Known about the structure:
- Chain A is α/β, with parallel strands linked by helices.
- Chain A has helices at residues 17-23, 28-35, 64-76, 85-89, 101-109, 153-164; strands spanning 5-11, 36-38, 52-58, 61-63, 77-83, 129-134, 144-146.
- In chain A, 38% of the residues are buried.
- In chain B, strand 8 (164-167) and strand 9 form a beta hairpin.
- Chain B has a five-stranded mixed sheet, with helices on one face. Chain B has a three-stranded antiparallel sheet with strand order 6-7-10, with no helix packed on it.
- Chain B is 24% helix and 16% strand.
- Chain A binds chain B through residues 82, 85, 88-92, 94-95, 97-98, 132, 134-135, 137-138, 142, 144-147, 149, 171, 173-174, 176-179, and chain B through 90, 94-100, 103-104, 109, 112-113, 116, 118-121, 123-124, 126-129, 215, 221-222, 224.
Amino acid sequence: MSDKIRVATTSLAGCFGCHMSFLDIDERLLKLAELVEFDRSPITDIEHCSDCDIGLIEGGVCNAENVHVLREFRKNCKILVAVGACSINGGLPAMRNHIPLEECLNEAYIKGIGVENPQIPNDPELPLLLDKVYPIHEIVKVDYYLPGCPPSADVFWTFLTDLIEGREPSLPYELVHYD
Amino acid sequence: MSETITIDGKEIPFKAGQTIIEAATAAGVYIPHLCHKPGYKPHGSCKLCTVNVNGRRCSACTFPAATGQAILNKTQELEDNRRKITQMLFVEGNHFCPSCEKTGNCQLQGVAYYLAMKDNHFPHFFANRELDASHPDLLIDHNRCIFCNLCVRASQEKDGKNVFAISGRGINKRLIINSKTGLLKDSDIEVNDCAVQVCPTGAILEKRKGYSTPIGQRIYDTQQIDQVSLTQETVYE
Ligand code: SF4
Ligand code: FES
């Protein structure tokens, strides 16, 4: 194994917006690639985490599979980072939290406008939904938080370069946003 | 000779009858606050303004300034406590900033940014709160109410009405509206009332105004709340 810093990333109940914003570091990606090696991530298609230094989690936890993935990351990553509003407070998916799950499913798959062949998906391959969408710190211990919807490319860059160069990460005022 | 207090070692003059926060603001010292607003009767409920006065915790917005007070304000411990209080406010309601028209102009957000709050720390309540969009020009989203009581005071003290009250305790506390149906449309509130403009969060909103300033160019996107507070208190004043 190389002595590069290993980074894993995933999107749970997120929209991949945080990942897109990460890619917005543009040509700085080349510099980053000299320093880090990506492990499990949509960027690599590696399916399971091995030992990593940094795990970046986008999205909250909405179903049983999210719980497994999050625990796999926590087990394998020395530093686990909640990336974006959804991982921090559940975000927009958590706006279903005050509606009973059955009502949500009925609205989407039975009574919704334009629904054909109404039925609630029930394939054994589908992960079961949780009663609510949970922020990740309610399931595992989280080491750092990058707020934003999404956090800007500069947030990713500042945070990762701080960490890689051995500084305690710190974001200046202009980089902290909840929106 | 004018009388003085000290805040974090700095000598600050005060006039008889002034609270600590009033004397501090006049001298250009920011004490974080949410339920306090100059010109309104103090309420003392959010506890964000808690300072240490001669070794004792006091709310700066209610406690009178008095000779001989040595006050601590911007200490690590007090700022840590204020961050915890702010996190509790975030988990008690449903504060989804990306979907809120007030984002960037919200004082709850401004205070949280100032305190470098990155997460909500506590488990979320995900409380079930209502939205009242019945009024043609206004809406009230109870998910975002922090019970600062400012709209209650504004309606009574400034508008000469009595539109709002806070009812219940603890987790069941809620803002109620003085109308037969309990809906905003049947109250005598009007869009230019102080009670509408005073809300520090996105709980009371004017309709069709939400995005007149783009996100990214709003108050706390560019300025920290201490500077905003000391120069103009709020734009809605
Ligand atoms: S509606 Fe706004 S002004 Fe009224 S108590 Fe709630 S947060 Fe305060
Ligand atoms: S500002 Fe003093 S208690 Fe709220």
